[in-house]
Amino acid sequence: MTSSPPSPADTRPDLDPRGPRFGAAITAGLLLVVVFLSLTGASVAALVGLAGLAALFAWGAFAGAGRHPYSMLFKRFVRPRLNPPVALESAAPPTFAQGVGLLVTLTGVVLGLVGVAPAVGVCAAIAFVAAFLNAVFDYCLGCQMYLLLVRAGLLGRPVA
Amino acid sequence: MDPIIALSLVLALVAGATVLGLVWRARQGRAAVVAPGATAAQDTPLTPADVASRLPFGANGTLVQFSTDHCARCPGTHVLLAGLAGQRPGVAHVDVDLTHRRDLANRFGILQTPTTLILDGTGRVRARIGGVPNRSDLLQQLDHLTGSTHDQLTPVTR
């Protein structure tokens, strides 16, 4: 005896879950470089780097996690070398997580542009922790943030 | 800042994130037993209406899964719980979509999906699992449920 799971048409499982983790590993590495640049006082380089990463997050957030450049790399070069995925997952949570990443990195970029240079490193460090947990521990930030935003009343309002 | 110090801070950041991840992973999927009499609210048996379920609860116990439509592991958890419930007579599985039920998410203090409540035959919450349930923890809880149906006052222990 069981009830039907919530499965709207746009959240059908169609994504190899290892794709977003592969992308998160690259992103985490690049964010660490930004943190290092920011700490060593290379403010301009750090700001440019974070702006580039924000643009990549925007790509994932608006085009979908499955159409992100890293996802393309994964499909082209990595997935053919791996075993088939155990199960496919919906692209909605990683796409949402890309939006969260965009928000965090864009905050750093904006603060950096108005002269708050340390914010670049701090925002890069925050985004790094999320990307690292995603890549190494398979933590799904999008899933958790989505629920917390529902609880805060910012998403998923009761259907009128 | 000196590059060596900067590099040390970067490595400390990686180490901190690793510790965070290990702690998170150790807690994921483990059944946290809800002791009877902890609070009055926890002792009140739940009804299907409390979780907006149109399906009845099981005579021996119910697995109440909380999901959203943005949840990578919820479909897999659904398959796992439905399978286990199907193997046990009198055990039901209910999947509650919190996407449009903020009130339920707040009432049950759900911080992540999937979260699973294990109810006994009377509808009282016996255990709670955050994340994809650990299969052996879940089986143990189900054994306690079916074994403790004659004596509802026996606390569930691991």
TrEMBL record, chain A:
Record-annotated membrane-spanning stretches: 21-39, 45-65, 86-113, 119-141
Segments forming domain DUF4395: 16-151
Top-level lineage group: Bacteria
UniProt cross-references to InterPro entries, sorted A to Z: DUF4395
Alphabetic keyword roster: Membrane, Transmembrane, Transmembrane helix
Pfam families xrefs: DUF4395
Name listed for the protein in its UniProt record: DUF4395 domain-containing protein
Organism: Cryobacterium cryoconiti
TrEMBL record, chain B:
InterPro entries named among the record's database cross-references: Thioredoxin-like_sf, Thioredoxin_domain
Domain of life: Bacteria
Domain Thioredoxin: 29-147
Gene3D superfamilies per UniProt: Glutaredoxin (3.40.30.10)
Annotated protein name in UniProt: Thioredoxin
